[in-house]
Design goal:
heterodimer; A: mainly beta; seven-stranded mixed sheet; four-stranded antiparallel sheet; 0% helix; B: mainly beta; 13 strands; 51% strand
Amino acid sequence: QVQLVQSGAEVKKPGASVKVSCKASGYTFTDYHIHWVRQAPGQGLEWMGWINPSSGGTKFAQNFQGRVTMTSDTSITTAYMELNSLTSDDTAIYYCARENWYFNFWGRGTLVTVSS
Amino acid sequence: DIVMTQSPDSLAVSLGERATINCKSSQSVLYSSNNKNSVAWYQQKPGQPPKLLIYWASTRESGVPDRFTGSGSGTDFTLTISSLQAEDVAVYYCQQFYGSSRRTFGQGTKVEIK
């Protein structure tokens, strides 16, 4: 069965970077884009971008251009999202999701807390 | 980017009654290659990731109860829960996945029991 297993919670200081991983299994990793979506406490879903694990191509939301990097390692079927220059506004749960046009599989989420 | 606007922000419905959530896109999301509207609906309960309910505006995901129905075309879409159950208390989001566009979600609609 399809599974997306994300890395554990992180606590970071303002100005730091965070890298979240998403380990995929149960399907051919290179056949589907992986998207990243975040959710601040008590807020809605915010799409961040996607990576095509086959080509390494990416596309980002304008809000994150220049501050986010998405990569993948096909040898271990894992996608990564790195966010730089963190502020308290980046405190959120970060989800990875597999695209089949829509998002039919989601990771459980990774809580990133930014606090001095 | 395509903006998705949901209404209302919240609603309270009696058990067994109908709940209706609307979603409007800022431009048409009709995908010409298959003549389908590129809209999905998700349900999110506290402490859980979103769960796909509906895709291509009206196709129910496997295992989703048939009291959930998606409809609409062009720029106006609706999610209807025909007979609200206690387990349907959640926040519902629409999302567009039109072509190669940046994906966007509606702001969410919180459904509660009256």
